[in-house]
Design brief:
Helix content is 31%, strand content 17%. The chain is α/β, with parallel strands linked by helices. It is globular and about 45 Å long. The two termini are 29 Å apart.
Length: 173
């Protein structure tokens, strides 16, 4: 998010709406930080940036759908939410338009801050970009720097095109 904010600041000619970024706490113990964030801001929509375990090694019993170096993951669903199709659709569209490698993610074993944000107030259309990682929650968690750079590119391009989402909700789809 720090690099994303720098990119937004360094490109003042490019138009976007108000952007709020938050580094939350206690995601792993109930999404507590994110649950107090959204009511204070009342966003039109939300995009969480998180990491996700890869499933491309023989030491895990997963599906092989998230690989290191395959690009950021666009979440479809996890334990805490089904990502809103407007957000997911725009993320996919932007990735394809900008030639940003990406992976689709369904991982029911975890939750993300978007899971708390989407249920606040009258509901917030929410989605997630996940950075694939190995050895999650260990001292040697590993990511691919290309995946990290492409996550920033995807989030930045999403912000610039997100005017399509403002004022829309599930009933408009």
């Amino acid at each position: 998010m720090i690099q994303l904010l720098k990119d937004l600041k360094d490109n003042p000619d490019r138009k976007h709406g108000d952007v709020f970024c938050a580094f939350t706490v206690q995601e792993e113990v109930g999404l507590r930080g994110a649950s107090v964030l959204s009511p204070a801001i009342q966003p039109d929509f939300a995009l969480a940036i998180d990491t996700t375990p890869t499933s491309d090694t023989y030491d895990v019993l997963m599906t092989g759908t998230r690989v290191l170096g395959g690009g950021p993951c666009i979440k479809i669903a996890d334990k805490s939410l089904i990502a809103h199709p407007l957000v997911t659709g725009l993320l996919e569209k932007v990735a394809e338009q900008q030639n940003i490698p990406h992976q689709m993610e369904v991982f029911m074993g975890i939750g993300t801050d978007a899971g708390a944000i989407h249920m606040t107030s009258t509901g917030v259309s929410s989605g997630v970009i996940s950075i694939p990682s190995r050895y999650t929650h260990s001292p040697i968690e590993i990511i691919d720097l290309g995946d990290l750079e492409n996550t920033v590119k995807l989030a930045s391009a999403f912000i610039y095109q997100s005017g399509e989402l403002v004022g829309k909700n599930f009933l408009d789809t």
